[in-house]
Amino acid sequence: MGPRRRILKNPAAEAEQFRARAALAFAFVVLGVLGLGFWYYRLQVLQHADYVTRSEANRIKLRPVVPGRGLIYDRKGRILADNVPAFRIDVTPSEAGKTETWLPALSQLIALSPEDIQRYENERKASRGFKPITLKLRVSDEEAARFSVDRWRYPGVELVSYLNRRYPYGELFSHVIGYVGRIDSKDLETMGEGNAALTHTGKTGIERYYEQALRGKVGYEKIETNVDGRPMGQVGHVPAQPGADLRLSIDLDLQRAMVAAFGDFDGSAVAVDPRTGEVLAMVSLPGYDTNLFVNGISNADYRALMDNPSRPMFNRNVLGGGPPGSTVKPLIGLAGLDSGLRTPEDKVFSTGEFHIPGQKRGYRDAHGGAGWTDLRKSISQSVNYYYYKLAYEMGIGRFEQYMRKYGFGAPTGIDLAGENSGVVPSPAWKAKRNKKEGWYPGETVIAGIGQGYWIATALQLVRGTAAIANGGDLRRLHLVRERRDGYEAPWAQVAQPVPTRITDNAAHLRAVQEGMMQTMLPGGTGASLVRGAPYVSAGKTGTAQKISRRGNVSLNPHSLPYHLRHQALFVGYAPAENPTIAVAVVVEHGGYGASSAGPIARKIFDAWLLGKMPEPDPKSEPDPAHGDAIAPLAAPVAAALAPAGEGVAANTPAPVSPAFAVGALSREALAREAAKGHANAPNANAVRAPAGAPPRAPAAAPAQAEPRR
């Protein structure tokens, strides 16, 4: 074994190696410190806001605060739409877990319908799991108490207090106030995510038109929670802004009187203040209970409303319309004066039958020839001959121009959504629907008595009548008179547009006013309506036919099936020399304007001017002796619309005007319903009908013929 070799140490090399290792270690330490410092800087500075937000989100939860919906009052401050305290059940799916784990037990505490459960499931599938979903609205006090005891058993299920909409007068204002309903996905798209906490939105009527003003602005509360997510206290809030309160121009007492005046008849009526355009009362009958819709109407209730042939949900004033009949004669007479074709004293000789030059067919008056007739007599005695001749001489182009000037063929601007514009007869309107057939002179002639392709709403009729009453100002009709943004805020008048003028000739307007006043005097068609009245009124009766005469025989509407009887109309104002109210009344199946619509208007006048409420006794059959008789035209109206030289069989039924398609069934549809026994249905609760009359069917289109009234 060789000798051991001895290893000598090199202190200098070892020292150098140590320094190198120490430097490397120090570098790593420095880098680590720098990295840690940068990390802390990133957490504390760069991402401070993000982590603070996350931390606060774990500790603080935002709870939306739904504002109180604005109240709606009548002109005297009586509440028409109110908010009442209520409870609902909200469920947060992400916290509650699977439905089958908690729903059966919860159903033992709270009555849940299949509709409630299905609606919840649909919303749960369509929304995010962390957002609360309403399971049931309007939980009773007993159910709320039972749930509160066992609340701890149901994580993610909350009993929430809120204000529920209530309509104290329900059916009375169904077509004016409208109703709110539960918000759906389409509503949210329109309203925006900022209103996701809201549960209801306006669906119809004032509630819909003024939705943005009524709903207010959603606020929120900051709620501090513990590690289990249970609330511990409020640490801040942004208050909700309540909706604006609205005061309507409608008078509750007059609204009641208007409904009572109709008795068992269906129809519509509007009363306005001609000085301002304010709507004093407005009804569409029958109505319906709007409270049924607030929290979701049941299938049975909704089916009952939809199957009712009287169409209670159809707003006849806003969406309906039909031939105005003789109620437009005062305005047509004014057009004749302003166009220079007539003066108030000009007379035409009514032989009882007007002929278009070159044609043998005639257009008859109801009671034969009226002799020499000026403007005032033509209005008061409703002489058709005067208006046949005037319309023919005016020509359809000029006729249309004046009728549009008086507000027909366009919305009145009332603050309700979906208003029907109506139709003024014209070649252009007809050409859009029948390009193969031109305009016939006979169509111009019957347009002069408010028949043919006319569609006029009660709103348009009362607006034109109010313009005659107030001296020529065509004002915007409106329901909301004042609003206030906050309970302590003062009421502010809602501004209205400047009215337009229907005429600048005071003498012409005065002649028309005198003709309407003479209508209500002995010899006029409305004389029987004002017996015993301590005030002077002015008016015009009207009747729109639904079925033509047979041969040369004029039909008594009371001999017809109930659903084929004529529409009865009346327009007027009072007191005549200083009008404070103007009305338009349309009675479905009423027979004659003077005997059905006129008495209703008289009761409305009495209620407003005298404070006399109508007696709620049953409506009797109209009296045919009041002067409203159907004009015995020389040939069916189908012949009147045909070119010269074309004949029509004597028993050919008059064609239904395509203009009267809004909200009405065709005559063929009515015949089918009658064949099924629908007209004699025994369901007395479904259809409102006068004593002794069969239940009524929806209005059919009137034939194009018009009486002298």
Description:
This protein is an alpha+beta fold and 709 residues long. The chain folds into two domains: 63-244, Penicillin-binding protein 2a (Domain 2), CATH 3.90.1310; 256-548 and 558-610, Beta-lactamase. It has 22 helices and 23 strands. Strands 2, 3, 4, 5, 10, 18 and 19 form a seven-stranded mixed β-sheet that branches. A five-stranded antiparallel β-sheet has the order 12-11-23-22-21. Strands 1-8-9 form a three-stranded antiparallel β-sheet. It is elongated, with a radius of gyration of 37 Å. The N and C termini lie far apart (152 Å). Residues 547-558 and 617-709 have low confidence and may be disordered. InterPro entries: Beta-lactam/transpept (IPR050515), Beta-lactam/transpept-like (IPR012338), PBP_dimer (IPR005311), PBP_dimer_sf (IPR036138), PCN-bd_Tpept (IPR001460), Penicillin-binding_protein_2 (IPR017790).
Helix content: 25-40%
What is the C-alpha radius of gyration, as a whole number of Å?
A: 37 Å
Q: What is the CATH class name of the largest domain? A: Alpha Beta
CATH architecture of the largest domain: 3-Layer(aba) Sandwich
Strand content: 15-25%
The chain-level structural class is alpha+beta
Count up the helices: 22
Terminal CA distance: 152 Å
Low-pLDDT ranges:
547-558, 617-709
* Number of self-contained structural domains: 2
Tell me the major beta sheet. Answer: 7 strands, mixed
Fourth CATH level, the homologous superfamily of the largest domain? DD-peptidase/beta-lactamase superfamily
Q: What gross morphology would you assign? A: elongated
Output mean pLDDT: 81
Subunit arrangement of the protein: single chain
Main location: membrane
Function: Catalyzes cross-linking of the peptidoglycan cell wall.
Protein name: Peptidoglycan D,D-transpeptidase MrdA
InterPro entries: Beta-lactam/transpept (IPR050515), Beta-lactam/transpept-like (IPR012338), PBP_dimer (IPR005311), PBP_dimer_sf (IPR036138), PCN-bd_Tpept (IPR001460), Penicillin-binding_protein_2 (IPR017790)
